[in-house]
């Protein structure tokens, strides 16, 4: 009888152990910290204006809520500026170099518990056909007059912005660079938005990014800023409710540098 009891007890222990599988460990992990998902890996190809980062974060204990989220770049051949880095959906701006980029999403809940997850973005170089199309576009006259130029007083180069609402950002960059090349003897660049229409915060960011690649002071409303390569990458910008026009957005970005 005692032998039978031992056998029954042995089977009971084996059944208990077999019931503790990997899913129980996963469930316990969910209860100890937030669950963070940085999204699926992406394979992209140049040319690109931006990369969309879309993640999620959740606390499985109802007593806790997600309090803080932030995106950061962990690796990559080019340091990119992040727009809305404190949101679950963020944008990495103006990738121009092919390679592997890694971005990390961090989340912290009201219980002080935190977790991270990473996503890999592989950017392939432009194909030969894409390169040829871009070379051809450089020889075509501007169909949309987004930027024109003239010399002002005291050897000041004036960039006059026109219709910004229906122009591709790459075309805007091209027109702006051509205008800057024509103003090769200017001592500084004055931005004139008196004739501009349309555009949004992405347009303003493209203007600042392009201007930061040259060495002349950039002036707006009698105030000048010395931009530099990588200016945007050193800051994480959030959309401002008051930034409802390109001139206001550009002025806000330049104000940040002036201060």
UniProtKB/TrEMBL annotation:
Q: Which PROSITE patterns match?
A: PROKAR_LIPOPROTEIN (PS51257)
One Gene Ontology cellular component term attached to this UniProt record is:
cytoplasmic vesicle
Instruction: Enumerate the transmembrane spans.
Output: none
Please indicate which superkingdom the organism of origin belongs to: Bacteria
Protein name (record): PKD/Chitinase domain-containing protein
Cross-referenced Gene3D superfamilies? Immunoglobulins
The record, for InterPro entries, names: Ig-like_fold, KIAA0319-like
